[in-house]
From TrEMBL:
It is a multi-pass membrane protein. InterPro entries: CPA3_Na-H_Antiporter_D, NADH_UbQ_OxRdtase, ND/Mrp_TM. Keywords: Antiport, Cell membrane, Membrane, Transmembrane, Transmembrane helix, Transport. It is found in: Cell membrane; Membrane. It comes from Paenibacillus medicaginis. The chain crosses the membrane at residues 68-96, 108-124, 130-150, 162-184, 204-227, 239-261, 273-292, 299-317, 367-385, 405-426, 452-471. It holds the Pfam family Proton_antipo_M. This is Na+/H+ antiporter subunit D.
C-alpha cells in the first residue's frame, strides 16, 4: 500500500478548510494556497515516478481489502493526470493572483479553488465508482461557487443553467450507480469488471452502460455540450482556464476508465457509439469556432473540438490510439489553460472580447501575441510542439483500424482549429491599432498584475515545448498508461491481489 495516494486529495481539502477561517487576510490565503499547490506538484511527480518504476500503486483505506473498502488506485493514466492537474492548478493560482481581484479573493475564491482541485484529484485516483460520484460532486459544488463569484447578471444566468444541467446529470449518475449495484452487487471498479464479465446479463448492463455514457458525456461536453459555451464565458479568465483545462477532462477520464475497464466490449459495440458522438462533437464544435466573433466563444468551442478529438482516440481503442489519447489529453490540459490565460490578457488589453474591435496589439503586447500563435500551432498539432505526438498516434491508430471517415473528420477538425485561432491572431494583433484599454505600463498596480499573468503563461509555454521536444522520453510513461487501458487485467490484478 502507498499512503502517498491520499495526499493529492487530502492536501487541497485540508488547505480549503484552513482558508475558510482566513477570509479577510488575502496575503495569508495566497501564501498558504501557493505552498499547498507546490506540495501537490511534488507529490504528483513522486507518484508518477513510483508508478513508472514499481507499477500500479494502491491504497486500501482502513486496511479493508476490495471489494469491501475504499480503495485509491494510481495507474500511470491517473498519475499523469494528477501531475498535469497540479501543473495547471499551480499556474492557474499564480495567474489568479494578478487577475482575479481582491473582492473575489475576500469571498472565498481560494477555498473553492482548493475544493475544486480536491474533487478533480479524487476523481482520478478513486477505484470505486460511488466515490467517483462523490468526488464529482465536490468538484461541481466548488465550480458552482467559482462560476457565480462576482455576481454579474451573466454569471448568475449561466450559473443557473450550469447547475440545472449538472443536477440532472448527477441524478442520472447516482441512479446508474444504484442500478449497477443492484445487478452485480459491487461498486469497486476492478471487481465490477470481473463480475460484469461473469454475469452475462447483456441487456440490462447495456442500458446501464448507455446511461453512464450519457452522464459522462454531459459532464465532458461530448456532443451534449449546449451548456458549455455560455457557462465558460461567464467567469473571469482564471476560472475559465481551470474549467476548460480540468472539468471536461474529468468527464473524459471517466469515459476512458469506465469503457476500458468496467464494461467489456462483448456487451455491445460501445466504441461505435463513442465514435459517432466524437464525430458530431468535432463537427459542431468546429462550426461554433468559426461562426462567432468574440474570443470567449471561440476558445470555448475549441475546448469542445478537443473533447471530440480525444473521444475519437477512445473510439478507435487500439494501442496506438490509446497511447495517443493519453498523450493528447495531457497536452490539451496544458495548452487549453495557456490559451485561456492569453485570451484573458488579450481581453484586458483591448477592453473588449469582440474581434471586430481589436487590432494592432502586437505593438504593445508582442509576447502575448507570439505565445498565442505558438499555442495555436501546438493545438493544431504542428511538430515539434506538444500536440503533434498525440495527434500522430491517434491518426495512425484510426487508419490502422480502418476508421477512415472518423480519421478524416479528426484531421479536418485540426484545420478548423488552425483557421479559428489564426483568425483571432490576425484580427487581434495585426492590422491597424484600434481603441485599447489604457497601457498597463502606466499603472503600477496593473504592471504587477501583468507580471503575475506573464509568469504562469511562460511556465505553461515551456511545458508545451517540453512535451514536444522530449516526446521520446515522455512516451515511455504514456505507453505504460496505454498498456493498462488496452489490457485492463493489469489494473484488476493490481487492485484485487492479496
Amino acid at each position: 500500500m502507498n499512503n502517498l495516494l491520499v495526499l493529492p486529495l487530502l492536501l487541497p481539502l485540508c488547505t480549503a478548510v484552513v482558508l475558510v477561517f482566513l477570509k479577510n487576510s488575502v496575503s495569508a490565503q495566497r501564501i498558504i494556497s501557493a505552498v499547498s499547490v507546490l506540495l501537490n506538484l511534488i507529490v504528483g511527480a513522486v507518484i508518477v515516478q513510483q508508478v513508472h518504476e514499481q507499477g500500479i500503486q494502491t491504497l486500501h483505506m482502513g486496511g479493508w481489502m476490495p471489494p469491501y473498502g475504499i480503495v485509491f488506485v494510481a495507474d500511470m493514466l491517473a498519475a499523469l493526470l494528477v501531475l498535469t492537474s497540479a501543473l495547471v492548478s499551480a499556474a492557474g493560482l499564480f495567474y489568479a493572483f494578478g487577475t482575479i481581484g481582491e473582492q473575489r479573493e475576500k469571498h472565498y475564491f481560494y477555498p473553492f479553488f482548493q475544493f475544486l482541485l480536491a474533487g478533480v484529484n479524487g476523481s482520478f485516483l478513486t477505484g470505486d465508482i460511488f466515490n467517483l460520484f462523490v468526488c464529482f460532486e465536490v468538484m461541481l459544488i466548488a465550480s458552482y461557487a467559482l462560476l457565480v463569484l462576482g455576481g454579474t447578471k451573466l454569471q448568475i444566468r449561466e450559473t443557473l443553467k450550469y447547475i440545472l444541467v449538472n443536477i440532472v446529470s448527477s441524478t442520472l449518475f447516482v441512479a446508474s450507480v444504484a442500478y449497477l449495484y443492484g445487478v452485480v452487487g459491487t461498486l469497486n471498479m476492478a471487481d465490477l469488471s470481473l463480475r460484469i464479465t461473469e454475469t452475462g446479463q447483456g441487456g440490462i448492463l447495456s442500458v446501464i452502460a448507455i446511461l453512464f455514457l450519457i452522464v459522462f458525456g454531459l459532464k465532458a461536453g461530448l456532443f451534449l455540450f449546449f451548456w458549455l459555451p455560455g457557462s465558460y464565458s461567464a467567469p473571469p479568465p482564471a476560472v475559465a482556464a481551470l474549467f476548460g483545462a480540468l472539468l471536461t477532462k474529468v468527464g473524459l477520464y471517466a469515459i476512458i476508465r469506465t469503457f476500458t475497464l468496467i464494461f467489456p466490449q462483448q456487451l455491445f459495440d460501445i466504441q461505435s457509439w463513442i465514435g459517432w458522438l466524437a464525430a458530431g462533437t468535432m463537427i459542431l464544435g468546429g462550426i461554433g469556432a468559426v461562426a462567432y466573433g468574440d474570443i470567449r466563444r471561440i476558445l470555448n468551442y475549441n475546448v469542445i473540438i478537443g473533447v471530440g478529438f480525444i473521444a475519437f482516440g477512445v473510439a478507435v481503442g487500439n494501442g496506438d490510439a490509446m497511447n495517443g489519447t493519453v498523450y493528447y489529453l495531457v497536452h490539451d490540459m496544458i495548452a487549453k489553460a495557456l490559451l485561456f490565460f492569453l485570451g484573458g490578457m488579450m481581453i484586458t488589453a483591448a477592453g473588449t472580447d469582440k474581434l471586430s474591435e481589436m487590432g494592432g496589439m502586437i505593438k504593445r503586447y508582442p509576447a502575448v501575441g507570439w505565445m498565442f500563435l505558438i499555442v495555436a500551432l501546438a493545438l493544431v498539432g504542428i511538430p515539434p510542439l506538444s500536440g503533434f505526438p498525440g495527434k500522430l498516434l491517434i491518426v495512425r491508430g484510426g487508419l490502422g483500424e480502418g476508421e477512415y471517415w472518423l480519421t478524416a473528420i479528426g484531421v479536418a477538425s485540426s484545420l478548423i482549429v488552425l483557421y479559428s485561432l489564426i483568425r483571432v491572431f490576425m484580427k487581434a494583433f495585426w492590422g491597424e491599432e484600434k481603441n485599447t484599454a489604457p497601457d498597463a505600463g502606466n499603472d503600477p498596480k496593473a504592471r504587477i498584475s501583468w507580471k503575475l499573468a506573464y509568469i504562469p503563461s511562460v511556465f505553461l509555454l515551456l511545458i508545451v515545448f517540453i512535451l514536444g521536444f522530449a516526446a521520446e522520453g515522455i512516451y515511455s510513461y504514456v505507453s505504460q498508461a496505454g498498456e493498462v487501458l488496452v489490457q485492463p487485467s493489469l489494473y484488476i490484478e493490481a487492485v484485487l491481489k492479496e
